[in-house]
Amino acid sequence: MDPARTMTRMSVADVPGAHQGDSLRVPALVRLPGGRLLLAHDHRPVPRPTDWAGRGGALPDDLPNPNSLWLRTGSGGFWGPPRRLDPGLPGVTGLSDPCLTVGSGGVVHLLASASTGTGLFGARTPTHPAVPGQPPEPGTLRLLHAVSHDGGTTWRWSDITDVCLPSSTWPRGAVVFPASGHGTRLRHGPWAGRLVQPVVAALTPRPDGSRPVRSAALLSDDSGDTWRLGSPLPAVPGTEATSLAGGAATSGTDEHALAELPDGRLVTSARDGAYGGTRWTSWSTDGGQTWGELLHADDLPDPGCNAGLVALDDGRLLLSHASSLRARRAGRLSVSEDGGRTWRACAALTGPETPFGYSDLAVLPLAGGTAQVLVVAEHPQPDGPTTLTVLMTAPTRPA
Prior knowledge:
The chain is an all-beta fold. It contains no helices and 29 strands. The chain has strands spanning 4-10, 23-31, 37-44, 68-75, 78-79, 83-85, 94-102, 108-115, 142-148, 156-159, 175-178, 181-182, 184-185, 195-202, 211-220, 228-229, 241-242, 248-250, 253-260, 266-272, 278-284, 295-301, 308-311, 317-322, 331-336, 344-348, 359-365, 371-380, 386-393. Strands 11, 13, 14, 15, 16, 17 and 18 form a seven-stranded mixed beta sheet that branches. Strands 2, 3, 4, 5 and 6 form a five-stranded antiparallel beta sheet that branches. The termini are close together.
């Protein structure tokens, strides 16, 4: 596959009301059945001098920073003006971490985190179900779900934080936020039609204040009317560490991307929460409810950064990721021809020293049996804001 070329760079000037130093972050990208693209992302204002860590923030521009969500529609490198997504729910002070999934009939589902004044590490597990129209339970991080039946023009929002309540799978409950990017609607096997979206769950804080985090999937078998939280990915023995965000005690993985294989299995590629320089892979044979043993992907260099994952019709997997061992740079497109067990580089998305952060990707079929891969990635500036860059491979045959 030929190297990618830069098509568009999105800056904070593209978001009305933005100020110098604000950032655009955490892209989520999907292609609708008719070919139109939807791109959701955060706008993150420059953090004000405030006690963000004391309010449970992971990093200064994470919630509870007053972030907002924006949506763009487009085709390839050409995008319409951004529109702000407002859930209109009481008590919400900031939105972050979009995850998009296209369901049956082209219905679009969006997950997002909503702050009520506290961040991930300061939030507590909810103690009672949400009451529609009432302010959310104080001290909780909310999990929101939005549905669009018209390609992203209008949305219906709901609070689904009830999935975080204690259950047989999660006896003490959890604080859950979406892994930005996209989920999938299963097409094969007994769980065909199920919606699966990658999430991260933070458990009850330990006596020393650290908080274990685990990767999991949020599942719906009724087109998004109800959701439940599947079992976490296995912990990795000997990987206990404190993440760079502070306050998180990793168990091997946290943010991850997933895709369905032709045999009906789900595969997930997760960043190493301990920043060990590579990624982790796991598979599910029951539609994302449980996950098998983690495989250390030694052939996927990664500094500890969220990535984008898609499955092609022929079963191959494509992963967009930062390929430097220690820094978010050197964007790369990697391919797997054996369901995620082994990987090789197939395109350089950026130069080896060019910044490359969180990313998501979509495959765009073209006439004559060719296709292009579209990647939207963060472009962190040294000691400055982060912008979004759209990268597109040259047309290639999927053979």
